[in-house]
Amino acid sequence: MALLLSNIRRAWHYKFWQRQTAGYLRIYEKNNKLPNNEMIGYVLNDKHPKTIRVACDRYMWVMRYKKAFRFTKKIWAHDEHSECRVGDVVRVQPLGYRLGPWKTYVLVRVLHREPRDDELAPRGSEKRNLLLPRSTEESAG
Q1: Which Gene Ontology terms of cellular component type are present (predicted)?
Q2: What DSSP string describes 56-79?
Q3: pLDDT tens digit at each of 141 positions of the chain
Q4: Residue partners of 109: CB distance under 8 A and separation at least 6
């Protein structure tokens, strides 16, 4: 039953993509030294306008266990053109200053777009904004 559930994913979760792509991303980061503290990660959340939540992986060698471990850091990044969706693999870099209380990174580029059934489906933030005017019309009418 567990195998059947793993094949049929009802909702996107970043841990699934971490397990699937860990080797590729680790080799990419090893071979291509990223400048300016840039990081690669998965978009977890696109529900805020011009903002994305990214899970970035770092691999550190731990001497005690003689093994490389993955550490995940979830950060807020500025997405000026609102081009990212949940599941995309992106490259982000630190701004050097903060945009708001949490946003300290900016999107550099989208490395991989998650294939979707409906390419024209709105982002999480657009869905929410589309729902807001309807509720005001109902209360006015």
Answers
A1: mitochondrion; ribonucleoprotein complex; ribosome
A2: EEEEEEETTTTEEEEEEEEEEEE-
A3: 455 445 555 566 777 777 777 777 777 777 777 787 889 999 998 888 899 999 998 888 899 999 988 889 999 999 999 889 888 899 999 999 999 899 999 999 998 887 777 666 777 777 766 655 555 555 555
A4: 90, 91
Give the type of residue at 91.
R
Cα–Cα distance measured from residue 60 to residue 54, given in angstroms and rounded to the nearest whole number? 19
User: Residue-wise over 78-94: b if at least 16 C-beta within 10 A, else e?
Assistant: bbeebebbbbbbbbbbe
Task: Look at residues 70, 76, 75, 44 and name the one whose alpha carbon lies nearest to residue 57.
Answer: 70
Rg (CA), the chain: 18
Instruction: Count the alpha carbons within 13 Å of 115 in the hemisphere toward its beta carbon.
Output: 0
